[in-house]
Hints:
The structure is a single chain. The chain is an all-alpha fold. The protein is built from 14 helices and 4 strands. A hairpin with a 2-residue loop joins strand 2 and strand 3 (about 200). The protein starts with a helix and ends with a helix. About 40% of the residues are buried.
Amino acid sequence: xxxxxxxxxxxxxxxxxxxxxxxxxxxxxxxxxxxxxxxxxxxxxxxxxxxxxxxxxxxxxxxxxxxxxxxxxxxxxxxxxxxxxxxxxxxxxxxxxxxxxxxxxxxxxxxxxxxxxxxxxxxxxxxxxxxxxxxxxxxxxxxxxxxxxxxxxxxxxxxxxxxxxxxxxxxxxxxxxxxxxxxxxxxxxxxxxxxxxxxxxxxxxxxxxxxxxxxxxxxxxxxxxxxxxxxxxxxxxxxxxxxxxxxxxxxxxxxxxxxxxxxxxxxxxxxxxxxxxxxxxxxxxxxxxxxxxxxxxxxxxxxxxxxxxxxxxxxxxxxxxxxxxxxxxxxxxxxxxxxxxxxxxxxxxxxxxxxxxxxxx
Length: 361
């Protein structure tokens, strides 16, 4: 057991993970729930929501790093899997509103507005949390399984794979914009009231969601590290570097690539399900190709093929995005482009690579 743990991380790595858990599971709840509002150490709900949102993005970045950093598969469609998980959770949250909506009807408000008389077939049983939690995993996973099977079997790779994943995301976004799909059109889902019978806007509920997100982030970090340090992970790295040679050695590279692609999609779906109740909205804009490109930028900025770099990159870029959108919203895209160019030119191994190089010196 100790050998497996030391294979995953050194004692410094485990210490950093322990510190991360201490901050997320103890410091944040105390500062948010126990410290008086007028104290300078009080953590407002704004910061709880912001950090919770960034942790959801970090989970998505981890999923991207697993396939891009270790298997060499650059997907520009992971925003779709993230949004599908969010919509699955959003359907449950919309059903939890009940008659507290604007029209005080059993149907969601947007369906009443469109004069629908009953729920569509794909809304069956969405008032049950367990069913929607199952959809969070199954819908992105099955889509990735079908799409990845045909793509990898046809030996689509490189820039061509990136383009078709981006096209898939764009097609899904256009479909979800249509009111006939039954997902709220361009407005999507919002105005949530309860989750598991609890008011969703109370500080206690938000902190529970925050802690669950932090636990999920650490769990997926450890799962990812366990995978990449196993034989499966070494085969993935070999596929990234020389897929033809790996196939010549007798490995079915399609199965390996498909397995990690499906797992990555499921992780994104879970991140989307955690994102929606904290942010309070989900709409088709989450599927925009630009969002999927931004996910790749997070990984590149933090350090591709490191896992921890994905978390650092997601935090750094989204922290900068929050600052710019509040103070200089018109300059954010320019800043994002500049960040990507500077990292590509001066930090090809990302922020984590820079720290590793400094520590080596």
